[in-house]
Amino acid sequence: MSFQRLQAKRHLFLAIRHVLWLLVMLSGAVGSAQTTEPATLGTTATLRTKPDFFQVVWNDRKTSLPTVSVIAGDSSATLGTVTVDLSSTETVALGSGAVAVTTSPQLLASERLSPSLPLEVDRSTTAAMLQQLDDLVKRNLYAEAFLLACQLVRENPDAEFAYDAAIRTGIVLSHANPDQIAEDLEFFFHQAKRVAALPGRYVLQQAHYYERIGRMEKYRKLVSEYEKRNTKDPDYWVTLARLYAVSGETTRSRELIQRALPEVQDVFPLVLLAARLYREIGSVDQARQTLLAALDQNYGPWQMRSLLLEFLKLPTFDPADLGQMIRGALANEVRYSVARGLADAIIESAIAHRAFFRFQRFLDERISAKKASDVEMWLAALFAQRAGDDERAFEILMLDPAKATPVIAYERASALAQKQRHREALGILEILVAEQPLETPFRLALAREQVATTRPLDALDTLVPIRFEELAGSERGDFIETAMTAAVMSGEPQRIMDLWLDLAGAATFAEIQTMGDIVVRALEHDPQAQRTEDAVADAARQGGRWPLLALYARLCGRKGDHRAEIENYAAYLQHAADDTQMLRFAAQLALQYATQPLLVEGSDDRRSTATVRFLDNTLLEHAASFYRRLIALQPMVSDNYSALMRLYQTRGEVEAAKKVAAELAEQNPSSHELLATAATILEENGFLTEALHYYERALQADPSDYAVWLKYADALLAAGNPKQAELICKKMLEEGYSGKPYNQPALLANLLKVATVTHETTGLVEYLSALRERDVPGKPEFLLSSAKLLLQLGAPDQALAAIERFQKEFPSHSLLHESYLLTGQIWYSHNDVPKAIATFREVEQKFPQSRAAITAAFNTAVAQASAGKIDEALETYRRIAKQYASDDHALGALFEAAVLAHRAGKDKMLTMKLLEEFLATECQDFALRKRAREALEALKAGKEPFTPAARPKS
């Protein structure tokens, strides 16, 4: 019999032998320490039968340690765990060996060292100097960047770019000491204006500079001298208008623009500045007319886009005028990403003006009259998509296939792809890429469709011109998904590996994980999977192909060879030593694998069972190594220390676990932040006595840190000292922080915890009632918060008294409406529905057309429905939608009415009618509209229309 089988039998025998002993041990070992987590206040906006504004969640602060171990080589089997209360200094000795714990700050990657500035500047080319300057700016080394810019000026005395660099860096540097380089900046501004083709930008920049440093005499002199030029140069007019605008002289700026525009009508900056100025001074019609007139000028594409964006800022929204601007600005736009950005701005503007459906109708009317341009049809499709009507959007895109400008053609191809009509989409995209080979969205979409039509090699060829490192946002994910899927579909391991190596250098941790997911999923049922795994294993051993180690680790994990998986991650991290995300992932994975449970059952004559948890010490060492390296790289991240503590606790090394927190604190024993962090991670891991010690040291170092006082009070409560915790919270509540209220909801929540633990809720009611007679910091907020807590404690009369005092002492407070809503909640929670409804109606009268009035109206309907008055509730919901027709939340009342009609009376016809009424409104809650359409379709099909998640919160 092999050694492994002998060991397995030995494990099983020992496991069964210790089952009964373990159960006895467990029965007396569970601790009793309890504590609560901080709670947040609820809102009175939604009625609740039993309000729980201050939620109390109980968590045991305990730690689980292994009890019985059977060691074989570098593995051990542990029979069960014992949960020990660690609120005292008592520890459990399990005979574990000493473990060296280090928090050495030694860096693991030479790249993380802060490189010193080179003493010698690379002057081989001007481009090299400019690159160095950009690098210095990115590293926030502006003093060095300014010196380098000065060198550029010396070597390029007639070049605008050199003076521009010196001015840019010098202005930033002057923030700390304006006088230090003032003379240098004066010289640079003078020279820049001398050599620049458009000197006005430097005049304006200099004016800003003078204004910022308070040199108003120089500012006025600059403007005065510039005014005297009085040339017909368009740059002069634009600069002078901007100078007036900067100084707030809107009248002079307007007069200047009105005088200049007839002479220089085609100067775009002046036109845009005029429109902006008219808008800012309230001359909306003049701004609109200026922008519309500018459409006749022969401006370039970016200027036209700027005009459109300025038009969207106007406070009015006229569909016809906007349509004219859109046709002028977007008719010839061929870049989808640019057009889509403008389309999104148009949609958001329509929503903000509550004109979404008005503009949608305008577009539909132009389509029906066959007057719509390509861009208008495209916008109509996007509006339909935003409204959740994908079928209508698809219908619009397919109305006129002859309209094939790139933007609408791409949208049509995307819609066809979503309908699984890949070959039709493919034909459109092939033409688009042929016409615009540099347009990345088109190329990505074509590759996706080539993958969908099982043409992986074509897809890879399509993606070749795209530089992955230059992509951003969702395009990176699209590229990875498409390229890696195509490589796997090719069935050639070499393609997979080459692509992996191409991407890994620029990919993030999450992207590398995605790449691995694609390969692992593809190989799950691939008969040639072993061939791919062998090829990756061989290639990963080659020095320059180390990024493949991450892929090989995933493949080892797929086979269940977890030791090999972690070892390959460790080898990968030797090369990517500062990849903190990969380190954290590998550490968590190693710890998970190292402590996997295994159910052990006896033979037929032994019915006992036990759960054996195997501890793989090799994997635990890997995990510990990863966490130590994380601590070295991120010495101020508490989660790393806490995780390492849990690892040692898993091995039963309690003192080593405590030492981790101690070493964190000892990095700087006088730092109250480090002491508090050490206390927090000790508390999280169940070491309450030690945590209290560090909390006390932190508070001695900085008694003004109220956040630490709160944590200290919470730990005291968990450690069985509720009275001291209560004293701390009361003192903070009554005195505040420098006379200002400090986090009253958290303090009241803590007081509720104390009262719950000590069974003294009556005493808390009396304390809160007495405190409302005193001048506490934040008195109005305290009265409302205490009223909520008193209501939760079952003291409605005292809650009402607190509210009455609030309304009497603070009749004009911004939270006055909240006090009335809370009063209605009190009556409702005590089943006095008539008083609740009367209170909510009073809110509507006192605060008409406000958010509070809408909330009160909703609460009225809820109260009526709870009292069985369904018809009255339905009528209230209808009234809300009619009375507050410009509020999307209020219009949603019709959806609520439909839900009530269905659930209360199963009235199908009425439910359908209410849903149709809702859809006929101009509610811009598009997610709710989609639910309403789906519910209506379900009703017509005889299905359940409303799922529990369908009903929005009132």
What does this structure look like?
By secondary structure, this protein is mainly alpha-helical. It contains 47 helices and six strands. The strands form two sheets. Strands 3-4-6-5 form a four-stranded antiparallel sheet, with helices on both faces. Strands 1-2 form a two-stranded antiparallel sheet. α18 packs antiparallel against α19 (422-435).
Strand and helix layout:
Blueprint: H1 3-27, E1 34-37, E2 57-60, E3 62-72, E4 75-85, H2 126-138, H3 142-155, H4 160-173, H5 182-195, H6 200-213, H7 216-227, H8 234-246, H9 250-260, H10 268-280, H11 284-294, H12 301-312, H13 319-330, H14 336-352, H15 356-368, H16 374-386, H17 390-397, H18 406-418, H19 422-435, H20 440-452, H21 456-463, H22 474-489, H23 493-504, H24 509-523, H25 529-540, H26 548-559, H27 562-575, H28 580-594, E5 597-601, E6 609-616, H29 617-633, H30 638-650, H31 654-666, H32 672-684, H33 688-701, H34 706-718, H35 722-735, H36 744-758, H37 761-771, H38 779-792, H39 796-809, H40 816-829, H41 833-846, H42 851-866, H43 870-883, H44 888-891, H45 893-905, H46 908-920, H47 926-940
Antiparallel strand pairs: 1-2, 3-4, 4-6, 5-6
Helix pairs in contact: 2-3, 3-4, 4-5, 6-7, 6-8, 8-9, 8-10, 9-10, 10-11, 10-12, 11-12, 12-13, 12-14, 15-16, 16-17, 18-19, 19-20, 20-21, 20-22, 21-22, 22-23, 22-24, 24-26, 25-26, 26-27, 27-28, 27-29, 28-29, 29-30, 30-31, 30-32, 31-32, 32-33, 33-34, 34-35, 34-36, 35-36, 36-37, 36-38, 38-39, ...
